[in-house]
């Protein structure tokens, strides 16, 4: 059954991001009003109820990310104020309360994206800022989130981006059976790049996901679920949603620094312009079989591969009209 639940976000300005937790029963919204709000789903009444609201940053809050629940209820947020805030829900006087645990300020520009690493890598957090640097932090003690150490930092492009084309984004590969990898949208280069560690554990740019006609606003690496290949989706300013398939290259290849490692063959297997407007977000479901995209047309579109491997739009959700199912 298709169901759309509407509720008043009660923010005083534009909402930049909505992030669901691991179970999908709690979400965080962040806004230009500098606030973060936490919402819990009431299954009995079928409504979202406000759990927490706080002025989280001194500028607009751009993104938020939930840690895996094995580490508790932990949330990270990033902002135009060049900082990342770490929040944890704790018991205080027998009452649950969200508490700011740490603030990370190592960048020289707006922190544009933040995402926790897959739980098998530990409690790690990757951020990318307008200065063109990806920074990876790790909590030294998962029972006390006050102290975070930057364990890696690497550039994603040719330098800082200070213009309107300077958007960066990132997404971790969640597979337990591959080396650490992530895909990063590289601002005005109009590409996304796959980064992985070399034999010296330094992050290197490897494959390039090209063919974009504008800035890549968002990237999402699909959960692998035992597939022999990987899927990555991108949302672009040119109004297109693209899906890239990564398969092992048996020939391998030499990378920067002279090290050799098995490379991926990159193929764009789907390219959709249905939004007819800038596309801002893409996200996979937990099995990596359904892709969701949203854009300036005010609609959320769900994409799924047919039995023959062709990706098609299976549903369109509009806040005004509700869901409609397409057969193509």
* Strand segment count: 27
Count of helical regions: 0
**Biggest sheet descriptor:** 5 strands, antiparallel
Structural class: mainly beta
Shape: globular
The H-and-E topology, N to C, reads as: EEEEEEEEEEEEEEEEEEEEEEEEEEE
In the sheet with the most strands, the strands line up as 23-24-25-26-27
Which percent range describes the beta-strand content?
A: over 45%
Average pLDDT, all residues: 89
Proportion of helical residues: under 10%
Give the distance, in angstroms, between the N- and C-terminal Cα atoms: 20 Å
Q: Any low-confidence stretches, pLDDT <50, length ≥5?
A: none
Question: Could you tell me the radius of gyration in angstroms?
Answer: 19 Å
Topology at a glance:
Layout: E1 15-20, E2 26-31, E3 35-42, E4 47-55, E5 61-66, E6 74-79, E7 84-92, E8 95-104, E9 111-116, E10 124-129, E11 133-139, E12 148-155, E13 168-172, E14 181-186, E15 192-197, E16 203-209, E17 216-221, E18 230-236, E19 241-248, E20 253-254, E21 260-261, E22 264-272, E23 279-284, E24 290-295, E25 299-305, E26 311-318, E27 322-325
Antiparallel strand pairs: 1-2, 2-3, 3-4, 5-6, 6-7, 7-8, 9-10, 10-11, 11-12, 13-14, 14-15, 15-16, 17-18, 18-19, 19-22, 20-21, 23-24, 24-25, 25-26, 26-27
């Amino acid at each position: 059954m298709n169901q759309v639940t509407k509720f008043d976000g009660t923010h005083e300005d534009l909402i930049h991001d909505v992030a669901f937790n691991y179970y999908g029963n709690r979400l965080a919204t962040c806004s230009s009003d500098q606030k973060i709000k936490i919402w819990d789903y009431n299954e009995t009444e079928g409504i979202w109820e406000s759990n927490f609201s706080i002025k989280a940053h001194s500028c607009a809050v751009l993104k938020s990310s939930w840690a895996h629940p094995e580490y508790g209820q932990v949330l990270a947020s990033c902002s135009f104020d060049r900082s990342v805030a770490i929040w944890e829900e704790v018991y205080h006087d027998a009452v649950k309360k969200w508490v700011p645990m740490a603030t990370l300020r190592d960048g020289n520009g707006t922190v544009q994206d933040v995402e926790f690493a897959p739980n098998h890598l530990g409690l790690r957090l990757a951020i990318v800022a307008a200065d063109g640097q990806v920074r990876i932090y790790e909590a030294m003690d998962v029972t006390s989130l006050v102290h975070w150490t930057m364990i890696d930092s690497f550039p994603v492009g040719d330098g800082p981006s200070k213009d309107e084309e300077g958007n960066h984004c990132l997404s971790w590969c969640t597979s337990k059976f591959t080396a650490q990898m992530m895909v990063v949208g590289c601002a005005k280069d109009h590409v996304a790049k796959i980064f992985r560690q070399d034999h010296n554990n330094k992050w290197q740019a490897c494959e390039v996901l090209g063919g974009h006609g504008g800035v890549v606003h968002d990237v999402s690496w699909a959960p692998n679920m035992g597939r022999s290949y990987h899927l990555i989706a991108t949302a672009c300013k040119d109004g297109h949603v693209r899906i890239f398939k990564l398969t092992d290259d048996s020939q391998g290849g030499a990378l920067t620094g002279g090290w050799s490692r098995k490379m991926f063959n990159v193929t764009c297997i789907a390219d959709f312009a249905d939004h007819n407007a800038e596309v801002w977000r893409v996200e996979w479901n937990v099995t990596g079989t359904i892709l969701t995209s949203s854009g300036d047309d005010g609609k959320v579109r769900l994409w799924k591969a047919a039995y023959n491997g062709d990706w098609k739009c299976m549903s369109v959700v509009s806040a005004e009209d509700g869901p409609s199912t397409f057969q193509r």
